[in-house]
Design goal:
Layout (H helix, E strand, L loop, with lengths): L3 H6 L6 H19 L3 H9 L2 H7 L10 H26 L1
Helix pairs in contact: 2-3, 2-5
Length: 92
């Protein structure tokens, strides 16, 4: 039985090797969806909010399907691309 203190101090401890494999699958799926190179998809992923949530164990994001996480990345990517377009338009 877990004590209240153990519950408060427990953190997500997903196996790091399994997480790395999950990251690779999600990045590959995202790259195919968006027509990006693996390098570009990798760079975007490691600078994304989705990656931070998975890494930090928020809402068990690491338990979500690869397709779901790739879709979340797609939404974040589209938001950032549209923000950059707005900034470029304001500069002109």
């Amino acid at each position: 039985m877990m004590t209240d203190e153990k519950i408060k101090n427990s953190t997500m401890t997903a196996n790091p090797i399994l997480l790395q494999k999950k990251y690779a699958r999600v990045i590959e799926c995202f790259a195919k969806q968006q027509g990006l190179s693996l390098d570009a998809a990798l760079d975007f992923f490691y600078h994304s909010q989705v990656y931070q949530l998975i890494r930090d164990g928020v809402s068990d994001m690491h338990c979500m399907s690869d397709a779901y996480l790739a879709e979340e990345l797609k939404q974040e990517y589209e938001e950032k691309v549209s923000e950059k377009a707005v900034v470029k338009e304001k500069i002109k």
